[in-house]
Design brief:
Serine Threonine Protein Phosphatase 5, Tetratricopeptide repeat; elongated; 386 residues
């Protein structure tokens, strides 16, 4: 306690000076200013603000590291070796204001357990903290809006590499979304698939026990769509579009086999579209329960009818390509050797004129089923990032 009290008073004394030192251009202020400019369509000034934010953060942690090195270079401190406990007491007792602020910043960003009582580790962490993934991401966003897709992609990748330093770790999914979308546009499909799978790795259903998906698939085959939706719920909207993208991609890239529909990519296509389909319907069910306390799921047909009485859900169904998802889910099931399930879903769509072109396509499939695949070269019919 004797050594903690002095450093607390030292920090209370030093914070106004440190704040004054940073007042001219805090990195977080530059970032927020850039976002405002970006949303107003002022991309040139937004880019400069984001670059300022990146530079200001790097400069701030560089100064902090230099302040620590200055103290560590003092002969009597050097004799203390790597003992952060002794060095911290020295900083407090000798009123090294800037070094105290640097230590406080590291303690705020990194757990003391990770520092492990090492002064050298403090220097390493100050080096790491120069990374600013949010700024890298927004620089990428600006280049994307200006049509510089190659530069934007590199910025997104840089932000993803620095994801350990995100203020909100969940934002990494947004970064991966943009990487996947640009890879799709650039037709780099193998890398697109790999990055989309990384998004799904953050989903408990995808990364959890394989038995869950096996059980779901068995229930779907044996008991049908309505039983699946009665038993299971999955509301991870952050990964739904990646399931949808991969499901349609696997279906689109399966080679036609007139006499052998159960080919290599069709089972993964059906499985991924099943999860996207389950997620979309979970959202519909949960929202209907919120607005109608006595609502209970009965059939998919009734669910669609009820959802179309709610304008907000109608908008959601359009955004997530709800009917298109059902159509390709049915197509993947049919091609994967489950024609009864596929035809049931097509029949459902054919009876709902609100499904538009997917209702008409379903009528054609019921007359004479065929592999109705998105274009292999451009994949223009695959889902876009939400």
């Amino acid at each position: 306690m004797r050594k903690v009290i002095p450093i607390v008073f030292l920090l209370l004394y030093s914070l106004p000076l440190w704040a004054q030192r940073q007042a001219e251009r805090p990195y977080w202020y530059s970032l927020e200013r850039g976002k405002q400019l970006f949303r107003n369509g002022d991309y040139g000034n937004a880019l400069m603000a984001f670059e300022d934010a990146r530079r200001d953060r790097r400069d701030m942690y560089t100064r902090m590291k230099d302040d620590m090195i200055t103290v560590l270079s003092i002969p009597e401190v050097r004799r203390m070796g790597d003992s952060l406990e002794l060095i911290e007491s020295y900083i407090a007792e000798r009123y090294h204001i800037n070094a105290a602020a640097a230590l406080e910043e590291v303690y705020y960003r990194v757990s003391k357990a990770a520092i492990n009582g090492s002064a050298n580790r403090v220097l390493e962490e100050l080096d790491h903290l120069k990374a600013f993934p949010e700024a890298e991401y927004w620089i990428g966003e600006t280049f994307r809006m200006e049509g510089e897709l190659e530069v934007a992609l590199e910025q997104y990748k840089k932000a993803h590499e620095q994801r350990a330093f995100l203020e909100n770790p969940a934002f990494d999914t947004n970064i991966l979304d943009k990487i996947v979308e640009l890879l799709r546009i650039k037709q780099q499909y193998d890398e697109m698939e790999a990055q989309a799978r990384e998004i799904l790795a953050q989903d408990s259903l995808y990364s959890g026990p394989a038995t869950t998906l096996i059980t779901m698939g068995r229930m779907l085959t044996e008991s049908g769509i309505n039983q699946l939706l009665s038993i299971y719920r999955h509301n991870n909207t952050a990964t739904e579009w990646a399931y949808r993208l991969l499901g349609m991609y696997y279906y689109a890239t399966e080679a036609p086999r007139p006499k052998d529909y159960a080919a290599g990519r069709l089972s993964p296509a059906a499985e991924h579209l099943m999860i996207a389909f389950l997620t979309q319907n979970t959202i519909l069910i949960q929202e209907l329960i919120r607005h109608q306390y006595d609502f209970a799921f009965s059939t998919l047909d009734a669910l669609i009818t009820d959802a179309y009485h709610n304008p907000m859900l109608v908008a959601y169904m359009a955004d997530c390509e709800y009917f298109k998802t059902i159509y390709y889910f049915a197509a993947a099931l049919y091609a994967d050797g489950k024609p009864v399930l596929g035809r049931r879903l097509w029949t459902l769509l054919s009876l709902h004129p609100e499904a538009g072109e997917w209702s008409k396509r379903s009528v054609n499939q019921l007359r004479s089923p065929f592999m109705d695949k998105p274009s292999l070269f451009t994949l223009e019919n695959l889902p876009l990032i939400p």
